[in-house]
Amino acid sequence: MIRHEGRLAELFLTTLADVPEFFEWDRVRRRGTVLFIYDQGLPLMDPHGHLSRTCEQARAVLAGGPPPLTLTERERSRYGLTCYMDDLVDTPSTNRYEQLSLADFTLREAAHLLTAYNGAWTGIGKWLPRRLLSADPVRGKALLDGHQAVADRTDPAPLATAAEQVLDLLGGPLREGYALPWRT
Fold first, then answer.
1. Burial class (CB in 10 A: 0-12, 13-18, 19+), 5
2. What are the tens digits of pLDDT across the range 65-93?
3. Residues 144, 142: Cα–Cα separation, whole Å
4. How many C-alpha atoms does 57 have within 13 Å on its Cβ side?
5. How far apart are CA 96 and CA 56, in angstroms?
6. Domain ranges of the chain
């Protein structure tokens, strides 16, 4: 990370030989952070055309989309979201620390499942709402509005409802009968 003209700039330094492995690492995480940088970044110079070719490689990987969740990943995520959602609804609004923490986890897990369901890239930080709204504008907005309702009004119901709608796309909440394997 460096500062340029008062703004922070993050540097991603790779060799041409590292690019395929770096892109695969990014694809497997389903976030595409580096891929999107190559796709949408502003090239400063490219005297030999390496950057242009690398950007085309990134665009090809992005167009192929992230890998789908495995059955084990999907079920673990369904179970996790169900637990976060249940705990969120059961947490008294007077316990703001727990309520806000649970709202964050509920949003994050629901976004993970919803983007995966839509075959879309996910994100973290400021990219989570952007990717979520891009993947599913209606359900994504419901999740984000529900998260805001917890933050603004201590009301978990809209977020729980939106999370349950995401779970319904994937078979519903997962509670009874699920056994989480501790070895994967």
1. exposed
2. 999 999 999 999 999 999 999 999 999 99
3. 6
4. 18
5. 47
6. 2-64, 71-169
